[in-house]
Amino acid sequence: MYTPELLELIKKVEATRPERIKKAQKGEHFPRMSYEEGGEVLHRFHPDYKKGSKRKLGLGPNEGDLVPNEVADILEARSIIDPGSIDLDNIDYDVDVLVIGAGGAGDAAALTAGEMGAKVLVVTKLRHGDSNTMMAEGGIQAASKPQDSPARHYLDTMGGGHFTNDPDLLEALTMDAPGAIAFLEDLGLMLDKDEDGTLRTLHGGGTSRKRMHSAGDMSGAEIMRTLRDEVRNRPEIEVVEFSPAIELLLDDKGRCAGAILKNLETEQLLVVRAKTTIIATGGFGRLHIQGFPTTNHYGATADGLVLAYRAGCGLRYMDASQFHPTGVIFPEQNVGLLITEKVRGAGTQLVNIDGEQFVYPLEPRDVESSAIIRECFERKNGIETPTGRLGVWLDSPMIEILQGEGTIQRDFPAKHRQFMRHDIDISKLPMLIFPTLHYQNGGVKINPDSETEIPNLYAAGETTGGIHGRNRLMGNSLLDIIVFGRRAGKNSAARSREVKPGKLSLEHARKYNKELEKKGLGDGLTSPMILPDYAGKIA
Amino acid sequence: MNKERKVAKKKGKEKEEKVKQEKASPKPEESKKEAAPQQEPKGEFIPIYFMGKKYMVPATVTIMKAIEYAGYRFIRGCGCRGGICGACGTVYRLPGSYKINVGLACQTVIEPDMYLTQIPFFPANKARYDIDEEKADISTILDKYPEIARCVSCNTCTKACPQDLEVMDYVQAALQGNIERAAKLSFECIMCGLCASRCPAEIVQYNIGILCRRLYSKHMMKKAQHLSDRLKEIDEGKFDGDMEKMKKMGTEELEKAYAERDIEPV
Q1: Which domain range does residue A24 map to?
Q2: Does A40 touch chain B (CB under 8 A)?
Q3: Are residues A274 and A403 in the same domain?
Q4: B38 pLDDT more than 80
Q5: Quick check: B266 pLDDT over 90?
Q6: Do A175 and B11 touch (CB under 8 A)?
């Protein structure tokens, strides 16, 4: 429960609520920032612009590019394995398509490759389905309604990404989007629908049409468990859990030809030979960029990024991190957890210590986050928690008044439960929030066929960069994993029919290690990280 | 734990600290307040027994954080850390009570003298099926999971559910062929497996739940007509021209179009 001090402050929120509700019902809203204003707030307050938080990469395809220190640490690091110590002729798995990562992108890829007749191996470092996909709450964008179009979706996404999105990738994303929803509907996904089958859609930050499709506030979980169930139905797909890929294998022609796995429990190393390989390992939240808490899954350590970079893949926009505006800061046990943007889509406002609004609730995520940071640190209108965290109120009880009593329990059951565990009823009391590290905007360069710059190596999902430019909109990542997961699956399976891998080699890792030594980089570090280490600490 | 990794992590930390020290922050108060992920535990410590071993841990944390504080690094039994993935099902007993309690390690706050263990994995049979071909009725349920008929309505599954779902009710609904009710009652299932671990009839409730949800969604909910219309329009190339135009716009033109877009009312 809230402390007496916080309960006292909540009274100020309650005092201004009736007036705010009245205005909202009349369609009067806190003004949106102009594009210029948004830009200024970003430059002054977004963590991406904080001095000293980045450094230039010392080697590899993106040498000289600025990336967060935490990313540089894992890229300027030696291979975990001694490349000379493994017998690459002793092959444990010989498959058509290797999928690294068993989240949404990996499973969508595996299903699609399997349908094309490929023999597929999916490997993952945790359980099948343990991923950020599972945690996504709000929804998935697609221009499925008559008043909407893929070109509108394209423009909204471009604006959200500050016009830095790759046009070809974005075209693929938005044109394939309705097909992605149909793919999910066809699998038997419990989408929110009206009686007549019409998909229910809402706004998300930065959208000009209501195109957010959902399954309660468990959209990602529903996608993940359904994809997982279907993968388990398919005899052509084998899944190996708790066995991350720790290095890619190239062949003597420099093409990707599989990977080395490590069984985390027995510590045994395994050789996979694959005609084509897909990296679908997700993002970097667990690197805790700039020490921020994260909404991300335990395994979000950017392993695939490291493997791809060492093999020679270029990256893009690795300096752009997404901070979700509404991360929980109270109770302490829930710090960093996500509160879906759908809560704001349903009419919730952000208010400061005086119960006053200070920002339009549905600005693009980076602008919204920056405005919250400004309110807390420059304008000093933040609310302090007992452990010294600063944040603002997310006035969730508004939903009950605007949309009717019981809406929160019906539409946000998971969030309601999460807070009730700590005796806070969010249909009656507001939540305390502050931006939290949420998404890796950049990543491995791909083309619309999901191909990386290394032959026979594909990538899909959060590990890739370019689709979202420098800032992703809500609902475009669940979309991304389905669209590009399927593209990667389809193209890798087609390609696998004409590939014959040459002699397997770890020469690239050896070279990378030498280069590090020559340049005096890395300080003996090894990567990928695989799992964060919170032993002996309170994470 | 991998020895090499341990070293790497340690060096990484030193480096991080070095970077932090070097950076002369213009707003020291801001960088202090910007919530580092690891906090020094404050206040009271209490004993918990993890698989029979006693550890003194900070009183207010979750089971998951307590286990980590005690020095463990999870391989199994830890996933989303947000109560939605089902990786960290935990059973425990409290002093003076015969009851077996359940919870998610990432969501349950510790109590003094809690005796606990995680159930990160429990063997379960999963039927294979082609969802397109299956009928949304009792015949499919009995065919795929005949053991459902062994349900003795003891309600142990419901008591074992960390999501507080009416597990027995959805199993019973499925058994009566009410696929819609089973789907809706099981919607919030996170498939942690605790129900199956406790079931005297050896039923795997959560796999029945997802089968019902998929049958219901696939065969009982109406298809979205506007969606298939849209797919047809895309196939016919209705949007190709607009998209081409949009892709050719320079940044300035895009900015203008973006600023001028009309917004559908909330």
Answers
A1: 4-30+322-437
A2: no
A3: no
A4: no
A5: no
A6: no
Substitution target in A295, A333, A334, A423 with the highest count of B β-carbons within 10 Å is A333
Residue B3 forms contact with A (CB below 8 Å) = no
Residues B209-239 as b or e (16 or more Cβ within 10 Å = b) = bbbbbbbbbbbebeebebbeebeeebeeeeb
Which of A151-155, A394-398, B3-7, B197-201 is predicted least confidently? B3-7
**B91-136 confidence digits (pLDDT tens):** 999 999 999 999 999 989 899 999 999 999 999 999 999 999 999 9
Residue B27 banded pLDDT, cuts 50, 70, 90: very low
Nearest to B223 among A185, A337, A414 (CB): A185
A34-A38-A41 Cα angle (round to 5): 140
Of B38, B78, B230, the CB nearest to A298: B78
Q: Provide the annotated active-site residues of A.
A: 324, 344
Contacts 24+ apart (CB under 8 A), B152-159: B152/B200, B152/B201, B154/B200, B156/B198, B156/B199, B156/B200, B157/B195, B157/B196, B157/B198, B157/B199, B157/B203, B157/B205, B158/B195, B159/B102, B159/B198
Whole-Å CA distances, A183 to A37, A180, A188: 40, 5, 9
B73–A535 C-beta distance less than 8 A? yes
Q: Are A429 and A504 in a shared domain? A: no
Task: Compute the residue count for chain B.
Answer: 266
Q: Is B16 on the interface with A (CB under 8 A)?
A: yes
Do A297 and A355 fall into the same domain? no
As a 3-state breakdown, chain A gives helix, strand, coil percent values, each rounded to 5, of 35, 20, 45
Which residues, listed in sequence order, are joined to residue A43 by a DSSP beta bridge? none
Q: Which CATH architecture has domain B122-251?
A: Orthogonal Bundle (1.10)
Report yes or no: A12 at the B interface, CB cutoff 8 Å: no
Helix (H) or strand (E) segment spanning residue B204: none
Residue A449 is encoded by which pair of tokens? 């066929």
State the pTM of this model: 0.91
User: Could you tell me the two tokens for A493?
Assistant: 């399976």
B213 contacts on A by Cβ (under 8 Å)? 188, 190, 226
CA distance A219 to A79: 37
Count of helix runs (H) and strand runs (E) in chain B: 12, 5
d(CA A504, CA A87): 10
Q: Which chain A residue lies closest to B264 (C-alpha atoms)?
A: A209
Distance from CA of A296 to the nearest CA of B (A): 7
Contact (CB<8Å) A539/B37 = yes
Domain boundary among A403, A437, A471: A437
| Residue in A219, A225, A527 to test binding to B, most B beta-carbons within 10 Å | A225
Instruction: Flag whether residue B144 sits within 8 Å of chain A, measured between CB atoms.
Output: no
Cα separation values, A467 from A316, A352, A378, B258, Å: 10, 34, 33, 18
**Superfamily of domain B42-120, CATH level 4:** Beta-grasp domain (3.10.20.30)
* Contact across the interface for A151 and B246, Cβ inside 8 Å: yes
Q: Which residues of chain A have pLDDT under 50?
A: none
CA–CA dist A477, A464 (Å, integer): 11
Q: What is the pLDDT of residues B125-170, one digit of tens each?
A: 999 999 999 999 999 999 999 999 999 999 999 999 998 999 999 9
What ipTM was predicted for this assembly?
Answer: 0.91
Pairing of the two strands A431-440 and A321-328: antiparallel
The rounded distance, in Å, linking the Cα atoms of A516 and A202 is 49
Q: How many Cβ atoms sit within 10 Å of the Cβ of residue A41? A: 21
